[in-house]
Every structure is written in structure tokens, then in C-alpha cells.
Amino acid sequence: MRPELTKHTVFIYFSGDATALQKQLIGEWLTDKQNVEIYFEWLEEWEKTQLQFQPDTMAALARVTEKILQKDEPGSTQAVIPIRKISRKTIFLWAAASLFVMGFGLYTGKDFFLYRTYETAFGEVSKFALEDSSIVSLNANSTLKVPRWGFGESTRHVYLEGEAEFSVKHTIDHQLFRVHTADNSLITVLGTEFVVYTRPKQTNVVLNKGKVELSSYAREKPLTMAPGDRATIEKDGAIKIEKLTKTEVVQHSAWKEHRFVFDDTPLLEVAAKIREVFGVIVKIKDKTLATRTATGSFPARNAEELLTSMSYMYSFEITRTENKIILIPNP
Fold first, then answer.
1. Which CATH number fits domain 116-245: 3.30.230.10, 1.10.3720.10, 2.40.240.20, 2.60.120.1440?
2. How far apart are CA 226 and CA 241, in angstroms?
3. CATH architecture of 258-329
4. Among 6, 12, 84, 106, which one is least packed by beta carbons within 10 Å?
5. Are 291 and 266 in contact (CB under 8 A)?
6. Per-residue pLDDT band at 64 (split at 50, 70, 90)
7. What DSSP assignment string belongs to 50-62?
8. What tens digit of pLDDT does each residue of 202-243 get?
9. 300, 309 Cβ separation under 8 angstroms
10. Of all helices (H) and strands (E), which one includes residue 17?
């Protein structure tokens, strides 16, 4: 029976005193991507207890990153444990971790090495704090990539696909916080609260408070948004600004409470929203029903709950086959 891997065992490995069996156990444990994240957390925790050692982490990271970006012959896809020197005075902690991810990244990609990824499943809403104390709420079916090293110190760039609300922490040195969107637009802020929606059909930015600058590939100069503004970036890069009421601004964050707010929204668009958030295909059999508009606020944690609530108001029935929901107008 193999011994159970504990934090204590991993700390022994960090100290350079692990046995061959312990190293093998750690190597097998690290083949699970989720455990790699735990590995980095424990590595940072252990490093804080070894204050007598001050490695040049950025220089080590730069060297390893250069190696990863080189297009040499592909290596083995078998996960390997970080290479370490058994010397307490010369251990490069983060460089060793980076070397592990270089091997691991052969089948997970260099993004895993460079970024910590936060992601939500269909129907899931998540809230978390970044290392600079900024707060992010991530809507369903969304992904946020944050630099794994130097975030809050040398960089505050993040990369969003999906929808998120940001409450950005203002730093003493006035460091800019930048959000890169799926359509290559850029949101630049100091300290503010705003919602970003960026999916293939379009990108929207709604500013709650503070000030942001919004750039797109079609604009040479950034556009400044004021509180209450909603910016829509069209496919050609053009940016359209409109002023919202306080109620409308709040409605753009309704998804944090698992609420859906519609304002004269055709059921065809409601169906598209359901596929986006819950991953469920909704078919509408009748053209007249598809253009029927919905208005109101509907709490729901899954597609059927939302459509059941709406069916009474908009007179349709629901049938389900496999991963599809079919809407049929009432006679």
C-alpha cells in the first residue's frame, strides 16, 4: 500500500531531503492538473518560511520562459517532477517549479505555465480575490487568465473570455489594471467597478463607478467612460456609448444573484442566452413564438427553471429531448 501524500512530504521535497519513493509519489501526484495548483500554493507557503534565501525569481523565470517559447523538437508527454539541487543554500524554488511546468506544459500548453486560470462551468457563478486584493465575480461559462508570477508587482494585466464584474483595488503606486477581451479590446483602469461581457457576438462594458479607458483595434486613441455608461464594441471595432439609468446599471450584475433580466427581449435571444449560460440548446418550433418578447426579472439556476417561469407568462409549453429543450406555443 502506497503512503499518502501530505503537505509535510512535499515540504521535505522542497528542502531537498525527499527519498526516491517520495519523489516518485510526488511525480505521480503532479500528473493531476488540480494538484499542480496545490503544489504552487504549498511552494509559496514553504518559501515564506525560508526567509534567509532570496532567489532572483524573475531572472530565473525569464530564462525558463525563453526555453519554453523555443520551438524545438517536442519532448515526452509524461509529467516530470521539478529538477532540484540538493543544497539548501542554492535551491532555486520558483525556477525548479517552472522547470516542472515546462515538462508538464508539453501537453497542457505554455498558457498553463504563464497564467493561473479561473473558470466557471455552465450555470456556475464564482467570486474570488486576486493577489492585488481586487475582487472578481465570474459569470457562468467564463474564463479569466491572470499572470502566475509578478501580478500586482510588475503587471496587472488579465485576460477575459465570458462575463465578469471587477472591483479593482487602487494601489499606492497608482499601477494600472488592464482587462484584455476576447475581441482584442483593452480596458484600462485605476480603481473602479465595472462589468465586462466579451463573447463572440460582441463586447459590452458597463461602468458602475470610477473611470476607465476603452480601446479597440479600430481606434487610435482610447475612449473614456463615465459612471453609468455602457460601451458596445462592434465587430468592426467601432465603440458605441450610451447612458444607462441606475436601475439598468444594476441589472447588468443581476447574474451574480442567478437572475435574468429581459427588456422586450425576443424569445429567440432568450434561447441564445440560455445556451450561453447553461449550455442547453433551445429550439422554438413556431416563428411567431420566436419573435414574442419578454420583459421582467426571472430568478433561475438552470434552463428548465427559467423557461418554466416564463412559460406561464408567454404561453408556451416545454418538452425535452436529450440536451435540447423545445418550446411549443399553447393552442
1. 2.60.120.1440
2. 10
3. 3-Layer(bab) Sandwich (3.55)
4. 6
5. yes
6. low
7. -TT----HHHHHH
8. 899 999 999 999 998 877 688 999 999 999 998 888 899 999
9. yes
10. none
